[in-house]
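Lab meeting, item 3. Inverse folding demo.
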């Protein structure tokens, strides 16, 4: 009974916070439109939201390490393993400016999807070749405007057997645009959100570990697989 009531409170508070975030982002999008075309100020509202959501959930113990590896004046191709929908909240704990490459279905979730639209994240329709080309055009545009782009190179959430194989796109893009790859490892998030149930039943320790960036200037376009395998190896070994 206690877990049910606590879980209910966590969800209600989370929905309220996400709704407040939407109204704040919408208001700032209108007021600051001429001055915040990259939506940096709008995006930054997600920082207090992520801090509040993680702090108010009694089942989550979240720790971030390795922020000394981030130069907040640089742009990166950020690559991370993907364990849970909670990763959306957790990535904001790095306080970095970025645009997600997020699947189309997330944009259709009420309130959460609206927030993704307001921040101008990159929408991907899986299996649609024209959508994939559009994603890369948008990613290049953001990178050339100094904004990092986040990829989950597994393409879907990790299985119980561990991290999946990486797709090539993020690494080809990093070499093409001569942008460092920043690996971020998320541990413990697999059980952060309940599977098949709305009840939180387990306390989890979540670690967000920012690894040193990988310089791509030494790679030629044909070396994308070496860069891909290096990034995956670093994430697997941490």
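The presenter then showed the designed sequence:
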């Amino acid at each position: 009974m206690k877990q049910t009531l606590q879980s209910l409170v966590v969800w209600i508070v989370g929905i309220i916070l996400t709704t407040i975030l939407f109204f704040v982002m919408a208001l700032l999008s209108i007021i600051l439109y001429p001055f915040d075309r990259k939506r940096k100020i709008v995006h930054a509202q997600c920082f207090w939201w992520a801090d509040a959501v993680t702090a108010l959930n009694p089942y989550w113990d979240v720790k971030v390490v390795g922020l000394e590896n981030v130069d907040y004046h640089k742009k990166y191709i950020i690559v991370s393993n993907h364990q849970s929908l909670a990763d959306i909240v957790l990535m904001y704990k790095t306080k970095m400016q970025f645009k997600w490459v997020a699947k189309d279905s997330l944009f259709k979730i009420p309130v959460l999807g609206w927030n993704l639209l307001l921040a101008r994240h990159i929408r991907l329709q899986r299996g649609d070749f024209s959508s994939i080309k559009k994603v890369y055009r948008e990613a290049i545009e953001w990178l050339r405007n100094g904004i990092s782009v986040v990829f989950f190179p597994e393409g879907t959430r990790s299985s119980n057997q561990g991290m999946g194989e990486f797709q090539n796109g993020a690494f080809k893009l990093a070499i093409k645009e001569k942008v460092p790859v920043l690996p971020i490892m998320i541990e413990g998030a697999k059980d952060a959100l309940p599977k098949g149930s709305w009840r939180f039943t387990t306390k989890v320790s979540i670690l967000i570990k920012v690894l040193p960036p990988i310089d791509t200037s030494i790679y030629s376009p044909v070396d994308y697989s070496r860069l891909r395998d290096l990034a995956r190896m670093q994430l697997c070994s941490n």
